[in-house]
Design a protein that fits this description.
The protein is 30% helix and 37% strand. It has 409 residues and is an alpha+beta fold. The strands form six sheets. Strands 4-13-16-15-14-17 form a six-stranded antiparallel barrel. A four-stranded antiparallel beta sheet has the order 5-12-10-7, with no helix packed on it. A four-stranded antiparallel beta sheet has the order 9-8-6-11. β21 and β22 form a beta hairpin. α2 runs antiparallel to α3. The longest helix has 43 residues.
Length: 409
Amino acid sequence: MPKLSTLITLVLFLLAGGVLAWLFWGPDDEQASSARAGGGETRPVAVAVASVQQQDLVERRRFTGSIEGGDRIVITPRVGGRVAEVFVNLGDRVEPGDPLLQLDTEEFEQDVTQAEAELEVAEASLAEAVASRNAAQRDLQRTRELRDQGIASRSELEAAETELALAQTRVALAESQIRQRRSALRTREIQLGYTRIDADPGSTTRWVAERLVDPGSVISANEPALALVTLQPVRAILAVTEADYSRISRGQEATVRTSSYPDALFEGTITRISPEFRPGSRQARIEVEVPNDDERLRPGMFVETAITLGQRSDTLAIPRDAIIQREAGPTLFSVDRSGERPTARRHMAVTGVRDGNWIELLEPELPEGTEVVVLGQHLLADGTPLRLTDPRSVPGADFAPGLSETEEP
């Protein structure tokens, strides 16, 4: 019984192999035998064709990205303290010189008052030192006269001279203390001025992108309080791969579209190109500057950007589907009508700018109007007879201009 079961399994396996072989090779052999008729004549291959045309081509590549503000600055106070008032809210327009933030000034005003008092004390000390110096000068003058008369001793003259020197030293010290107190007062006045923050008078119009503090909160020096951005211009931030990187350069034109304004196109120019690729994504950062005069584009918006990679005027073009990849390289087939029946002529193709379904033909130099095969060329070889069909009857065919609508018998 085991041997009978094994025999039956072997027979079934052989039958299945035969059926598979017939399915894979049987139809090809039948097609090969029926492809020739009347002494080995090759049966024509049905193809669709289009004509070589002179066209203006513009190649654009589309990238997705987001909008960033032209410039972003973070407002931080130079001194810490309690927030007394915030003059702007999120989304407010800020003109040059507009007030932004006010800190409580009580402690800083007290510091100024104290510094003013210390300066007054120093000025009084200087006046006292000057008076002492003047008195010492007079004493020295009298002592010298008495010495000349033989009344004052030499030691008395030396003591008067020493007293004058000390008085002059006290004056110099008082003058130094006044300069120090004046500097301290100026520092306190500057710190008092730092409690109020205004927009830079020499800047441009900005918008409040972030408000990080409220009245009553305590903020430290150099702690972010507000973030302001400019909207004229803005930048579209894109990421490009190595394949497109070499074809992008500064100054190239671009158009930006966003779903917020689906019917609007915003013109821009590439201004910055990163010299490196991110290790994770293998993409480089590209920045497109958009004037945004109407300020409709806002930071964070998702955008689609089309960059013009190349354009040609009045150049020979063919449908992109006319090019197929063969082992030898890009290939196309033209239609040769010099014989009794149209035949295929194979050409190695060199292409250029691509614009939608059309591509620039650099080589071979085919005359305008030459018919090229756009459907069915995978079955062709050089010299294959052709049967031209109306491409509109072929499912999926879409070669609008230049299509041949004739059908050869």
